[in-house]
Amino acid sequence: MELRIENLTKQYGTNIAVNDLSATLTCGVYGLLGANGAGKTTLMRLLCDIQSPTAGSVSYDGMPIREMGDRYRALLGYLPQDFGYYPDFTAFRFLMYMASIKGLSRGFAKDRALALLEEVDLIRVKDRKIKTFSGGMKQRLGIAQAMLGDPRVLILDEPTAGLDPKERVRFRNLISTFSQNKIVLLSTHIVSDVEYIAGSILVMKKGKFIHEGRPHEIIHSIDGKVWECMVPSTTVPGLMERFNIGNLRSEGDQTLLRIISDEKPLESAASVVPNLEDLYLYYFSEETQPASL
Ligand SMILES: Nc1ncnc2c1ncn2[C@@H]1O[C@H](COP(=O)(O)OP(=O)(O)OP(=O)(O)O)[C@@H](O)[C@H]1O
Ligand SMILES: [Mg+2]
C-alpha cells in the first residue's frame, strides 16, 4: 500500500501554499511538522481530495485519487483542523450519523462507535450533547469519527490541539496500535506528539519539505548546534535577545540555558545532544534565522 505524491502544487493567487512536493508514504505513522502557514492543512486537503491541486497528483497504489472518487473516500479517514460539530447531537448519535454518511452498515457502525468512544475515553458521556463538551472532548470525538470506517489512510490535522498531557499519551497509544498496516499522517506543532510514535517526520516550511526521515536521522542535521551553559540569572534577559533559547531552568541565582546556535554562543557553553524540539526551534524560531535558510 502506498500513497504517492508527485510534484504536488497548490497556489492561491501568487501565494504558493504547497510547492512542488514529492514523497511516497507507505505503512506507518508520519509526523508533519511546520509553523503556522507552512502549508500543512493545504497538503492534507489535497491528500483527501477536498481541494484540487494547481499541478501534480496524488495516487493510491498507482491509481490517481481524483479518479478513484468514492472508492478512495471509503478507505480514507480525515480529521479537519476546523472540524464542524453538531452541537445538539449527542456524541454517540454524531458518530452514528457520520457512519451513515460514510455508508457503513448500522450494526457495524454501532459496535465500532462504542469501541471508539471507549478508546477516546468518552464512553461515559456518550449520551451528552456535544455543546456541553470541552475543547479536548470535542477533539477526541473528532479523532473517533476519523477512525470510524477503519480507514487504510488516516489523515489527522492537529489532532492533539486542546488535549491535556494525559490525553496526549492516550492518543499516541491509540494511534500506535491503530497504525499497523495503515498510512497515518498527522500534523502538529507539538514535537513530543510525533517524536515517540512517528516512524518518519516530514518537516514543512513555506510549502516545501525541508527534512524528511526517521526522527533520529533528521535530528542529526543539527548536531553541534545545541549548547548548554549555566549563567547568572540577571544576564538571562540580555541573552534571550541575542540567542535562540530553547529551554531555561532557574537554579537559585543561576540559570541553565539551552541555546540553539550555529556557533558556540558563550565561552562556558558545552555542546549537547540535540532532540527534535531543538530541531523545530532551529528551523522555526523567528528571532534567529539560521544562515542556511
Ligand atoms: N483558501 C485559501 N485561500 C487563500 N490562501 C490560503 C487558503 N488556505 C490557505 N491559504 C494560504 O496558504 C498558506 C498555507 O496555509 P495552511 O493553512 O496550509 O498552513 P498550515 O501549515 O496548516 O498552518 P497552521 O499551522 O496555522 O494550521 C498560508 O499562506 C495561507 O494563508
Ligand atoms: Mg493548518
Q: What does this protein structure show overall?
A:
With 293 residues, the protein is α/β, with parallel strands linked by helices. Among the domains are: 3-75 and 151-213, P-loop containing nucleotide triphosphate hydrolases (Rossmann fold, 3-Layer(aba) Sandwich), CATH 3.40.50; 221-284, no CATH class. It has 11 helices and 14 strands. It has a 6-stranded mixed β-sheet, with helices on both faces. Strands 2-1-4-5 form a 4-stranded antiparallel β-sheet. α4 (91-101) crosses α5 and α5 crosses α6. The longest helix is centred in the middle third of the chain and has 14 residues, at 106-119. It is globular and about 65 Å long. The model is unreliable at 287-293 (pLDDT under 50). Magnesium ion (MG) is lined by residues 40-41, 81, 157.
Summarize the structure.
The protein is an alpha/beta fold. The protein has helices at residues 40-47, 65-68, 70-73, 91-101, 106-119, 135-147, 165-178, 191-195, 215-219, 236-242, 276-284; strands at residues 3-12, 15-25, 28-33, 55-60, 63-64, 76-79, 153-157, 183-188, 200-205, 208-213, 226-232, 244-251, 254-260, 270-271.
